[in-house]
Structures are given as C-alpha cells and as structure tokens.
Amino acid sequence: MKCESHLNILHMETCVISFVKLLENRIGLIGPERGHSLVQKSRADFVGPDRTGPEPMVGPVPGPRTKRSGPRFAILGTGAPRPVPGSKVEPDRTGNRSPLVHPSAGRERASDASHKQGHAFGIRQKTNYHSHALPSTSSPEAIAGVSPSLSVLHLSPSPRTERAPIRGGDGDGIAASAPGAGAGAGAGAGVLILAFSRRRNHRSKKKKTTAHCLPIRCRIFEMRTGKATATATAMAIALVVVLLCIAPRRVRSASDNRLIVGMTLVRNASAIGALCLDGSLPAYHLHRGFGAGANNWLLQFEGGGWCNDIPSCLERANTRRGSTRYMTKYEVFSGILSNNASLNPDFYNWNRVKLRYCDGASFAGDAKFDNGTSLLYFRGQRIWRAIIHDLLPKGLGRAQKALLSGCSAGGLASFLHCDNFAEYLPRNASVKCLSDAGFFLDERDISLNHTMRSFYDDLVSLQGVEKNLDKNCTSSLVYPAMCFFPQYTLKYITTPFFILNSAYDVYQFHHILVPPSADVHGHWNRCKLDPAACTDSQLEILQGFRNDMLATLRMFYQYSGRGGLFINSCFAHCQSELQETWLAVDSPKVNNKTISEAVGDWYYSRRVSKEIDCPYPCDKTCHNLIPVSDTQDSHKFISQKRYDILSVH
Question: Which intervals of the chain are annotated as region Disordered (predicted)?
C-alpha cells in the first residue's frame, strides 16, 4: 500500500481509511532507504538471542483491568529513570538506579498464563490489554508498527547503520530493508506506546496496579481521566495517522524486501599485483543461483567515474572508489541483481556478481606510480583477471549462460572486456554483454572544446590503458586513446551486445556537453537541475546531442542482427540497478516495453529488441534522475517523479 502525501481532503480521507484497514489486517510495512522503517515484528525479533539494544520491558503497562476500570493510556520515552508508584528503586547491574517491580505488584492476575510465558510483545487476554516497551535500538530495524489487536503503537527513527549477514562465506545475503534505511523526519528519540481499551470508559475505585522497568530507561505517565482519556487517545492516534500519511516518503510492501549480499575479498590477488589504487585487495559480492539458474552467471561492473591525474587519483585512493577499506561490506542487490522472480524474472535465479570498482580506469589500467612519497596502483586489468580466476572454480567455468553488464564507468568496462569475457567460458555457453549508461560520446561541449576527449587521453596515458584496448581499433586510429570511447570500439566486438542508455544521459549532459569549464557563469544551472526550466535554445542543444547519439548508433541499429537497444528520452543515468527503473509498476517504457522486458527479450532471443524513444518531453513514463551535486563522481540522483534521492553505484 502506498500512502502518498495529499493536500486535499478526499485524498487524505482515502489515505486514513487505507491506513485503518492496514491496522485491522496487521500488515507489516518495510520502508525504503529514506524515512522510517515500518516493520511488523514477531516476538522472536525482540526476545531472540541476536537482538541488540536495551532489554525490553516485560511487565504489564498498565496492570490488569477490572470490570469497571477505564482505559489506560501510557507514554514511554527515553530519559532519566523515574520510579513507578508502588515500585522499589534498586541499582541494576550497571550501577544505574532503575525502578523494579514491587513484590506485590501484579498479584491480582497471577494466573495470567501469557504473562508467565514472559512474552516481550503486547499480549491480549480476554478484555485485558497489556502493552510492553519494545527495544529502543539503533539498528536498521527501527520500527513503526501498529496493531489494534495488540494495542501497541511504536515509533522510532532508524539511523544509518549496516546490517550484519545471517551467515558468512560466498553468496551470503539477507532479505531486509537496505542499509541506511531511515534517517528521515521524526528525529525524536525513544519509543511511544499507546495502550487503550475497546470498552467504554468507567470510573474505577480500584487501586492502581504498578508497572516496572528493567534496564531500559523510561518514563511512564499513567492517565485515567474517563472521556478525556478516550478523547486524547483518539486524537493521538489520528495525529499519528495523519503524520504518516502526509510524510513525503513512499511506504513499501513487506514483500519488497531488499537483498543484502556480503563482500568477498580476492585473497590471492596480490600475487599478480591486482590491487586497488591504495594497494588494498579487490573485492566482489556473489549471490548464488538456484534451480534452473544454478549454472548461469551475471557479472555486473560497478560504476563510479575515473581519475586522470595524480592529485585526483590520490584523493580517490582515500575513498570507496579507490580502496576496499572504505567500501561498504554489504551491498543491496536490486534491479537486474534482484533475486525476486516478480522483480527480475529473467535473471533472478542466476549466480549474480557485483565487481567492486577501485582502480579509476574502468578495469583497464596496468601501471604504477611511485615518487618516493606517494604510491598508486593502476591495476584495473589485473583486478579483472583476478576476479575472473577467483570465480571460475566457483562455477563460472561451467557456465551455460552468462551476461557481462555494468553501469556508467562499469558500462564502459563492458565494452572493453566483452570479447575477453567470452574467452574464459565454455565454447557452447551463451555469452552476451550489456552496457548501461556506458555509451559515452566523443562530443564537443557547448564551447566547442573536446573536454571528454582530453580527459580520456590523460587517463589512458597515466594508467597504461592503451595496451589493453582492442588491437583492431587502436591500429585503425591516429590517436589510439580514442578507442576508450565505445563508439570507436563497438564495431570490433563480436559477442552479442545490448546498449541501454538515455539519449539525455545526465552524466554526459553535465560533464561532456556542458562541463563546468564551459559554463563558468552558470547559465545552465537551472536547466541542469530541472529540464522543465531549460530555455528553447538550451533544449535545441540537448536535442542536437540526442541526434548525435542516434547517428552514432545508426549502423549498430541497422546491421547488428544479434544486438539490442533501449534508448529512452529520460534524464537519467544507470537504470538497470534501480528497481524503480528496471521493472516496477510505473517504470519507464518505450513502445510499451520496460527495460527488463527489452533486455530479457534480447538475451533469450524471444523477439527483436531495438527500442528508441521519441524526443523529450514526449515520454511521460520517465523517472528523471538529476544529480544532487555536479561533481565528476556524483552518483546520487534526485528523482523528479518520486521526489526522493536514489543512490546509484
């Protein structure tokens, strides 16, 4: 269920009704990388041996209700501990003084079997409602779950932390919300629990029962004010519902869990000098295939720009783009890497591998820089070989079907290594290659300078790339470094190839067509942030860039019988790794075909798959992804369709 932000009353009413139905059905929701995580938790999640954070409360709050007792309303929050009326205050194991239950507390219902079991979740017995505090934790599973039958509402922000894997070794993965889930609005700390009764309020002369807190610090406010309490409870619930509904975030179904896969270091890589820029070992993430896909392999090159001089490479060596020491040890597999049959029907059960990018030259360099004070390893080509040789005995050498793909600089690596990849595999294997946002054009910028050509020329020279470029290409051009551009090497690739690209690729728009050096006064800034803000003359230049891309691909389109194309008119960059653009209810389409469908049709030869979109702004299915910053290594984008931030690797 999506609970989107709406400003008119009709939509708000629909949102609230949907939310109430959700409560009645007790459906758990998992949030994406932004906003709160909404998760339905089982008792085992809170009482299991692997839980983190403070101990949960295990006592009833409030105590058992009598026949005439009114509803109880309790609010718990973090802070200095305060004794509950009727309880002792004794030091806990840490030396802190925490309110502990009085020996006489709770004797009125000593026969409560459920309470004897020590359940740490809300328990209902007949008409009595007991609420228990859930752990206030800093784990990614920070919860906001609601269940009227349990009468528990728990809200907590979920900070950016990483998930630990369930098991170790190659291919370990867990289905969970992605790392970094949370970090959204509602930064208040602690937990909020509303305990209420379905029965009418009645005044009661019965003595109040006591509640107790174990190590978790909490404040307990108990209010019994008849109708006022019922009104306050209703207003509080209504307020929470409204806040959840108007929050600017999407709520994702629990079935759309993210797959998180652990990192594998290539331990023997140093023996052949296959090292990242800083000398650290290269790495990849492998999630094993199963069923009919157990012998099929998909390798995905990670993207992340390039470095073309010593200062930029030294800077890069101290980041995740130049060292595995700074990389996240777990990666989210989504889009073409997903293991969900409904989200990735053609490749979900394959062995899927993500090759981490740490050399700065699209896995193609082979050089070393050492001036006595600084040391840099430009060993992308060796890293490529080391990873392949590490995967061959793990099943890659027996592959029946294989697809080499990549995004951005990784998409360029697909062009550079496609034929070499096929040489490692059995002759009867079906081997094909895919480039996503890797078709970088040799194009003049708006100042008529060859900015990208100069950049690549410096890169090829610094990192020793030329000897690893296609020999047929380098021998046919006056400037061999130009073979780093896919348009010059494409015609020499013999392995079936699929090109996925936007005709208005935002990286190329910002760094090839309108680099900062060509727009020193910032006349294009508004246009870069919002295509709708572009002037007529700027749109004309953008349409010219699209025409040049299509002209460059004309021969491939007409004469490549085994090739595939998907050129849409979205302002985007890297669309295969994002579930929103790969395959979703509202993902981009060309000729009523999604990217996933187009790639699958091409790979399995179901039908010809060469899709070219109409010019901007005709395509209303686009997710226009605009870079948050205009740096050369920017891989975070704002989606104009969803108004959220998406990370692209």
Answer: 45-118
Alpha carbons 289 and 171: distance in angstroms, whole number? 9
pTM exceeding the 0.70 threshold for the entire prediction: no
Taken in order of first residue, the domains within the chain and their CATH numbers are 9-253 (no CATH), 258-647 (3.40.50)
| 3-class DSSP state of 123 | strand
Is there a contact between 327 and 320 (Cβ–Cβ < 8 Å)?
Answer: yes
In 3D, which of 21, 1, 255, 258 has the Cα closest to residue 146?
Answer: 21
Residue 206 has pLDDT above 70, yes or no: no
Query: From CA 355, how far away is CA 299, in angstroms rounded?
Result: 7
E strand or H helix at 265: strand 258-265
Lookup: tokens for 308: 């073309």
CA distance 286 to 298: 10
Measure Cα distances from 253 to 176, 241, 323 in Å.
12, 18, 35
Nearest C-alpha neighbor of 271 from the set 417, 410, 379: 379
Taking CA 578 as the corner, what is the angle to CA 574 and CA 582, rounded to the nearest 5 degrees? 90
574 three-class SS:
coil
Q: Which two three-digit tokens encode residue 183?
A: 């970090």
Is residue 56 within 8 Å of 133, Cβ to Cβ? yes
Angle between helices 380-391 and 409-424 (to 10 degrees): 50
Residues 451, 512 contacting (CB under 8 angstroms): yes
At 579-597, the pLDDT tens digits run 999 999 999 999 999 999 9
- CA 89/CA 546 separation, integer angstroms: 73
Spatial neighbors of 559 by CB under 8 A, at least 6 apart, are none
pLDDT tens digit sequence for 210-258: 444 444 444 434 444 455 555 666 677 777 665 655 544 433 443 447 8
Give the tens place of pLDDT for each residue, 443-461. Answer: 999 999 999 999 999 999 9
Query: What amino acid positions are annotated as catalytic residues?
Result: 408, 505, 573
